[in-house]
Amino acid sequence: xxxxxxxxxxxxxxxxxxxxxxxxxxxxFLKGCPLxxxxxxxxxxxxxxxxxxxxxxRCIGVEQCGKCIKACPKGAIKAGNAVKKSGTDxxxxxxxxxxxxxxxxxxxxxxxxxxxxxxxxxxxxxxxLLKRVSxxxxxYDESGGGVTVxxxxxxxxxxFTFELLKGLKERKIHTAxxxxxxxxxxNIQQVLPYTDLFLYDLKNMDSSQHKIVTGVPNERxxxxxxxxxxxxxxxxxxxxxxPNFSDSEENIRLTGEFCRSxxxxxxxxxxxxxxxxxxxxxxxxxxxxxxxxxxxxxxxKIMELxxxxxxxxxxxxxx
Length: 319
Ligand code: SF4
Ligand code: SF4
What we know:
Elements: E1 7-17, E2 25-30, E3 51-54, H1 67-71, E4 77-84, E5 91-97, E6 117-120, E7 122-125, H2 126-134, H3 137-143, E8 146-150, H4 158-170, E9 174-179, H5 185-191, E10 197-201, H6 207-214, H7 219-230, E11 235-241, H8 249-261, E12 266-273, H9 278-285, H10 299-310, E13 316-318
Parallel strand pairs: 2-8, 8-9, 9-10, 10-11, 11-12, 12-13
Antiparallel strand pairs: 1-2, 1-7, 3-6, 4-5
The protein binds iron/sulfur cluster (2 copies).
């Protein structure tokens, strides 16, 4: 086994995950995505660089601490307005971060002992990640699980993702790759022999709508799905059900037709109803929240859409 020196920027590693493929898995989340979906529930994944994040409920306030203010070489942190602590008459001043001055150097995180400030995005080598996941091989074996490489768009860091998947297969670990499909076809060809399952997003079958809302058209995504199917790869299709974007019967019918055209390659379709959990995460790294705010689809609506796909003979679950 050769040792890779390629580094990847990772923003989270979740052990004992049961949502990202079969069995018990470790999911490795990579930074950077070429799409900008307004409902993104992981907005911290979108930028390619490490970013300063702040969790208000962990901050003990500038009266008691305030260490980050002195630590910042750019003068980007100051005391914010005093606000009442919930359930008490006590006032507390949290920090206020001027993002236009911050260059994400991370100096403030080194003095923030409660962990309110942290850098989202850390560099790892493939070897470091392989070492970390290898201790969980017994759980993978027992449950039929493995490792999922996710994002962001993991193939935005194509070389690293390729080396990681290859290293996992060399250790006989089941691999899943969670991808938007919006990537150069050569990246798909490269990872195909080392990817047991593609978790593959199909958001909207109308390319112009897709471009208006996500920032990119869908032709490349559909072509790459065909490429995977023709090469004998397996696809678990994920369809986010987003109000007024992907939730029409027409879109779901076209999605069903497309999946059927891929033959046996599609092993499962997952419907992912919209939720607004991304808003809290967005507030940790940005001043203005650009996440879509909408009413989640009703259970009845989801069941109607599920039935349309099942009528194509597809296996469908809701998450
Ligand atoms: S990351 Fe660096 S520049 Fe940004 S607030 Fe912290 S210390 Fe200041
Ligand atoms: S160092 Fe951390 S806990 Fe202390 S004031 Fe700054 S953000 Fe809050």
